[in-house]
Specification:
Strand 7 and strand 8 form a beta hairpin. The protein is of the alpha+beta class and 316 residues long. Strands 5-4-3-12-11-10-9-8-7-6 form a ten-stranded antiparallel sheet, with helices on one face. The protein has two domains: 85 residues, no CATH class; 209 residues, outer membrane lipoprotein receptor (LolB), chain A (Clam), CATH 2.50.20. It has six helices and twelve strands. 26% of the residues lie in helices and 35% in strands.
């Protein structure tokens, strides 16, 4: 049997008050708060606490050397704990930097949307497009289809020229004609009372999302007043241009006492930096004929002849 040579310097720990025998140890040390450091060190990967080495024979026995107590109070683990505490305090601020875009204020997104709409305003004037309306009154089993030419003058007024109709006259008069009249009336007023602006709406930004194959900035809209022409719903903005891709929701005030509610969807297509209306869906519950449904498809946008547009602007 080999005997390990003695090492006096290792086999005793000298303190100011007494000499601690090798078998005194620090039994039960890990029940003390300071020893939690060692347990934390072993449970958290990627952190190096640089714990001071303690001779194995010091971990046996009943006593707690005073030199070890003083070491635990001022050693690197305690400093590491302090650094950890500071890191924890900083984490909320780091979280803000990597937060989901939905946590950002809506003001910046709305401002970019308003700027994009203003820039394209002149490009959406003096335009004509083909329109096909299809409408149904399910309870009466009535259907109608109307083709028209839609014109927007240089001053923003809307007019329709009917090219053909097939179906029930009730659908034509009570559904399609009412939609065209409402759009003509709204365009002629040219008011900011129904515009999508901070003056009329409260906005909640929901972040960038994938919707129907598009990357969009999603905004929830809630009107500040119960005014005709305002709606509660959503606004989808193109991720790159901030131009509208969709407006959808329910109007907060009905245009007639015969209408109980009116839901709608407007879809836009962006071409050459301009958002063109390409589809409209309307669903309304009426007090007389029940539910009415309207779909309108807009296509073949083209610039009106300048001479004709000038004459139309003068007559209007």
């Amino acid at each position: 049997m080999l005997l390990e040579p003695s090492h006096p310097a290792r086999d005793a720990v000298v303190t100011k008050s007494r000499t601690v025998p090798p078998n005194a140890g620090i039994k039960g040390l890990c029940s003390r708060p300071e020893c939690v450091v060692e347990k934390v060190n072993s449970s958290i990967s990627g952190l190096s606490w640089n714990l001071p080495s303690v001779a194995r024979h010091l971990l046996e026995g009943n006593g707690t050397p005073s030199v070890l107590r003083s070491t635990l109070a001022t050693s690197e683990p305690v400093k590491s704990l302090r650094r950890l505490a500071k890191t924890i305090l900083v984490l909320p601020f780091l979280a803000l930097l990597s937060a989901d875009p939905a946590s950002y204020p809506a003001d910046d997104v709305v401002a970019k949307y308003r700027d994009a709409v203003q820039k394209q305003q002149t490009a959406t004037r003096n335009l004509s497009s083909d329109v096909t309306f299809e409408a149904d009154i399910p309870r009466l089993k009535k259907h109608g289809k109307l083709d028209a030419l839609r014109k927007i003058s240089t001053v923003g007024r809307v007019t329709y020229k009917v090219l053909g109709f097939s179906g029930d006259d009730t659908v034509k008069k009570e559904v399609i004609a009412r939609y065209m009249a409402a759009e003509i009336d709204s365009a002629s007023k040219q008011t900011d009372d129904v515009a999508i602006t901070p003056a009329n709406y409260n906005f909640k930004y929901k972040g960038v999302q994938d919707r129907e194959g598009h990357r969009v900035h999603l905004l929830e809209l809630k009107p500040k007043q119960n005014r005709l022409g305002l709606f509660k719903g959503e606004l989808w903005l193109d991720d790159a241009t901030y131009l509208p891709l969709r407006e959808q929701g329910r109007f907060v005030k009905n245009p007639s006492i015969f209408i109980k509610k009116l839901d709608f969807v407007r879809n836009y297509e962006i071409k050459d930096g301009v958002a063109y209306l390409v589809h409209f869906e309307g669903r309304t519950d009426t007090r007389i004929v029940g539910r009415a449904e309207l779909n309108a498809d807009f296509s073949n946008y083209h610039v009106e002849d300048e001479t004709h547009a000038t004459e139309e602007a003068r007559t209007n």
